[in-house]
Amino acid sequence: MTPGIIEHLTTAVMLLDGELRPTWMNPAAETLLAVSASRVAGVALSDWLSGEDDIAEVLIRARDGQHPYTQREARLVLAGGDPLTVDYTVTPLSPDELLLEMEPRDRLLRISREEALQSRQETMKVLARGLAHEVKNPLGGIRGAAQLLERDLEQTPALKEYTRIIIEEVDRLRDLVDSMLGPNRVSRREPLNIHRVLERVRALLLVEQPRVSIERDYDPSLPELTGDEAQLIQAVLNVARNAVQALVESETPNPVMTLRTRARRQFTLGAQRHRLVCDVSVIDNGPGVPETLRETLFYPMVSGRAEGSGLGLSIAQSVLHQHEGLIECESEPGRTEFRLLIPLEMSHD
After folding, report:
1. Which residue among 30, 125, 186, 194 sits deepest, i.e. has the most Cβ atoms within 10 Å of its Cβ?
2. What percent of the chain has pLDDT over 70?
3. What structural domains and CATH numbers belong to the chain?
4. pTM confidence score
5. Could you give the CA distance from residue 60 to residue 14 in angstroms, rounded to a whole number?
6. Which stretches are transmembrane (predicted)?
7. Gap between the Cα atoms of 253 and 29, Å rounded
8. How many Å apart are CA 17 and CA 15, to the nearest integer?
9. What DSSP character marks residue 331?
10. Sheet holding 272-284, edge to edge
């Protein structure tokens, strides 16, 4: 195969010497591993590529045995700390030269996981919407009857107070049902600064929960994204408010929540590969999300709090879906991270 063809392959291809130092890589390898060939030339592979699966050990076995090896779904960590899942094959060309080929698996695994998650969420939304419409119909009748009764009780203020309570509670239930139906308008797509969104959320939460420290870890180089600022404020607020409430209710010592932004390059959301994705992380040092809730966390009416409506995260996920993004969660005791992933360039319908 000529060098020109290898240069244009989408498969990552790398040549290493007998000491496992790269001597050449094609552009696909540079993109996948987030390095330039010139910077890692002559640098041992283990110095900038590690992970749960010891790739260096496999390469050594291939070199010493002069036998090719293939690893499936190997979990690696890039120099910058980003995880990477790949299928790779190492082929000894000679005792002093190895050919390493890598195919990213993250995209396929992510697509499969997200499609399953979205399918379950859509099923729950259909059920919730059906239930919501069934509830709204009698609510209108109850409110109308209470208003008529209120007129007949003008001369009896004590009884009229009961009709006022009925009307207020009906309105509250109607608002709750509307929340179950998700955002009630189409997102407006306008350029916005995600850090302005986060600063608004931070200011609101500092007033609500002053004893929680809310730290910033922003990437100032992030470009503007296209989206609906009001809806994104609501989505981030729902996620962040969940975090601070968990910190307060669990009486976590020295409660800290961090708002962090990063850029993700060549990132897959759904079945689409995006050149640049905005990663907004809400991180707290609380007790973590109970294992029993993790699979259903974004379903309507699911909450780990006795007084919670179970709608905040469901609404946040709906907003992110309208922005062609999604929310992910990783949690363990002492550290919970919600990642709101939003493409910086949305497609146009």
Report:
1. 194
2. 81
3. 3-104 (3.30.450.20), 109-180 (no CATH), 190-343 (3.30.565.10)
4. 0.59
5. 15
6. none
7. 45
8. 7
9. E
10. 213-217, 256-269, 272-284, 335-343, 326-332
